[in-house]
């Protein structure tokens, strides 16, 4: 599946995965209001075998196929770094 990834400019470390570039018709309005504005940062072929940095590719594919999108949020168990 061709997948486009959008970064939220409002919520740090939050990414929206979509099956096609700029096809946000299935993303709930409330979610878009929470994370917008977004900007496209990546487009790639997503397969179950593909390695992703934070998520399981099979789970991402499953969510996209079932609901039309997948939201990656910051992991709660990661320590925040102090500057």
From TrEMBL:
It comes from the Bacteria. Residues 1-83 form the YcgL domain. Pfam families: YcgL. Gene3D superfamilies: YcgL domain. InterPro entries: YcgL-like_sf, YcgL_dom. This is YcgL domain-containing protein Tel_00980.
């Amino acid at each position: 599946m061709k997948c486009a990834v959008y970064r939220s400019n409002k919520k740090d470390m939050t990414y929206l995965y979509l099956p096609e570039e700029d096809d946000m018709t299935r993303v709930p309005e409330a979610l878009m209001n929470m994370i917008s504005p977004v900007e496209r940062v990546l487009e790639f072929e997503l397969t179950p075998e593909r390695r992703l940095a934070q998520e399981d590719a099979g789970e991402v594919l499953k969510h996209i196929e079932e609901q039309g999108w997948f939201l990656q949020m910051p992991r709660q168990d990661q320590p925040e770094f102090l500057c």
